[in-house]
Amino acid sequence: xxxxxxxxxxxxxxxxxxxxxxxxxxxxxxxxxxxxxxxxxxxxxxxxxxxxxxxxxxxxxxxxxxxxxxxxxxxxxxxxxxxxxxxxxxxxxxxxxxxxxxxxxxxxxxxxxxxxxxxxxxxxxxxxxxxxxxxxxxxxxxxxx
Length: 145
Hints:
The chain is α+β, with helices and mostly antiparallel strands. The protein is about 30% helix and about 25% strand. The protein has helices at about 10-20, 35-45, 95-105, 120-130, and strands at about 1-5, 50-55, 60-70, 75-85, 110-115. Strands 1-2-3-4-5 form a 5-stranded mixed sheet. Strand 4, helix 3 (about 95-105) and strand 5 form a beta-alpha-beta unit. Helix 1 (about 10-20) crosses helix 2.
């Protein structure tokens, strides 16, 4: 297993991996290749983009992407997406990739890591097991328009 920063040459593989993860339980999304490609492109093109991947047989099996943000109390990295191949989940690959990301962020003097995820699914328990804490004072709002 190799962990490293993302390279744009594997972009099509990231799109495919993203769809294979999120179009099945527990999310059951309905991503098309076109929409997934646009969504990931938006993240990749946002200022402060950082992405890391885990490779197995030279193919991405886990990805974390997000953005470095400047904040008054110290810079932070906001994880936009983390996705691990269903076949590789539960084998410690996500944990290793998360560790790799943390070291990379520390080297860049980024002192905080944040993200959003659904309640009551494996992702919630993964993040808690890897040192993330729920912030009770925050409320996530949404409105259909």
